[in-house]
Amino acid sequence: MTAEHVSVAVIGGGQAGLSVSWYLLQEGVDHVVLEAKTPVHAWADTRWDNFTLVTPNWHCKLPGYAYDGADPDGFMTRDEVVQWLDGWLQTFEPPLRTHTRVTTLRRRAAGGFELTLATEAGQETVTCDHAVVATGGYPIPVLPAFAASLDASITQIHSEQYRNADQLPEGAVLVVGTGQSGAQIAEDLHLEGRQVHLAVGSAPRVARFYRGRDCMTWLADMGLYDKPAPEYPGGKAAIEKTNHYVTGRDGGRDIDLRRFAAEGMRLYGTLGDGKDTRLTFEPSLRHALDRADATYNSICADIDAFIEREGITAPPATRYTPVWEPDSEVTELDLAAAGVTSIVWAIGYRPDYRWIEASAFDGGGRPMQNRGVTEVEGLSFVGLPWMHTWGSGRFLGVDRDAKHIATTIIDDLRRQSATSAHRRLAVAR
C-alpha cells in the first residue's frame, strides 16, 4: 500500500503546533496535525486545581485571536485558559488527527520524511516533505536516582501529577524544587494548612507588581521578551536559569519563601541524597534565598532605570528587605520523625527525541536549531523555550515563532514548485 503523503506534517496539537497549522491554512498548504491525545490537553491534564497563569492575560495571543476579556492585567485560572483555548479552536478547522502518536520519524532517501503512527486502528505510515516537531521541549518528568530507595510508605508524585492537597495522604509534605511549579505547589499546600517542608533550589524570583504595574508588563515595555537569545543580557548562563518564581493567584502576588518560613514552613537547601526515611541537604539555603532576593531587587533597579530614562511618572522606588533569616543550615531530615508522608518532586523535565532518526541534536539531546529551523533539510521545531526570545514557549511568543516556521516552509515549497515548473518547461522545449 502507498503511504499517505502530505507536504507538511505537524507533530503535536498544542498551541504551538496548531499555530503553525493556522498559518499553513492561510496559504492553502496541504498538511496534517498529528496529536497523541487531544488538542491542548496538557492545560487540563497536567495543571493543579488552583493553577493560574503567572503572565498577565494580555500576554495571551495566538494567530487571529487574543485575550479580550475584562481583566487584561489579571491571571487566568487553569479552567479559564482551557476555555480560552477552546474559543480559539472554534475560529478555524485544522486538519487534526487525534489519538495518533508518531513513534518514528526518519529521513527518506528520496527526500523528506517517513512517519510511523500508532493509532486506535493500528499502525500507519505517512510521508511528508517537511516535518514540524511541536511536542514540547521537555516531556519526561525528572526524578532523582535515589527516589526508588526511599521508604515505600512515602507517597511520591511528580509536580505534573499534583492536583490538590486532598490527593495526598494526611501528614506533612516535602516539596523538592522552587521553580514556578514547586514554589506555587508549596504555596498551595501551605494555604491548605499542610505542614510543608521545602527543598530550595537556585531559581530566582521577581516582584509581582512594582511601581504601579505588573513587573512583566514593565519588562515587555523594556523589550526583554523580544530580544533574541544571543543578545540577551547575561548570555547563555542567563537564559538557562530556571524561570523566576511568582504567582498569579488571587489577583497576583509575590512568592516570598522567607515569609512562608516565618509562618511555619520548613526550608532546606538543595536536596542531595536519600535512603529509606533519611534525607541529606546541602548547606545552601541562605545563599539561595539571598541570590533570589538579589535578582528580585536587580530587576526592580532595571525598571527604575527605564522609568527614569523614559521620564515616566510612577510611584516611588522600593527594595525588598528580608522578613526572616535561617538560624542555621539544617542538612538532615528524618521523614518519619517529621511526620512527612509524601513528596512532590518539582525538579523539572528532560527532552526525549529518541523517536527522531536525524542528526539534529546536541550531546544533551536538545535540538540544534536557529529560530526552530535545523540543518536537517525540512525538519523544524516550534514551542521550545528560548527558541528565539524569552517569549518563546509562552503565549506571548508562540504566534511569532509559529509564523516564522510556517513562512520558512511556505517559501521553501514555493521554491521547490518554481524549480519543478522550470524543469518541466525546459523538458517541453
Bin the helical content. 25-40%
Radius of gyration: 24 Å
Q: CATH topology of the largest domain, what is it called?
A: FAD/NAD(P)-binding domain
Roughly how many Å apart are the termini?
36 Å
Q: Tell the overall outline.
A: globular
Regarding CATH, which class of the largest domain? Alpha Beta
Mean pLDDT: 94
Write out the CATH superfamily name of the largest domain.
Answer: FAD/NAD(P)-binding domain
Gross CATH architecture of the largest domain: 3-Layer(bba) Sandwich
Low-confidence stretches: none
* Secondary structure tally, helices: 10
Keywords: Oxidoreductase
InterPro entries: Auxin_biosynth/cation_transpt, CHP04046_FMN-dependent, FAD/NAD-bd_sf
Organism: Mycolicibacterium hodleri
Protein name: MSMEG_0569 family flavin-dependent oxidoreductase
Question: What report would you give on this structure?
Answer:
One of its GO terms (molecular function) is flavin adenine dinucleotide binding. InterPro entries: Auxin_biosynth/cation_transpt, CHP04046_FMN-dependent, FAD/NAD-bd_sf. With 429 residues, this protein is of the alpha/beta class. It folds into 2 domains: 214 residues, FAD/NAD(P)-binding domain (3-Layer(bba) Sandwich); 205 residues, FAD/NAD(P)-binding domain, CATH 3.50.50.60. It is built from 10 helices and 22 strands. Strands 1, 2, 5, 6, 7, 8, 21 and 22 form an 8-stranded mixed β-sheet that branches. Helix 4 links the parallel strand 11 and strand 12. Helix 1 packs across helix 10. The longest helix is centred in the last third of the chain and has 34 residues. It is globular, with a radius of gyration of 24 Å. 38% of the residues are buried.
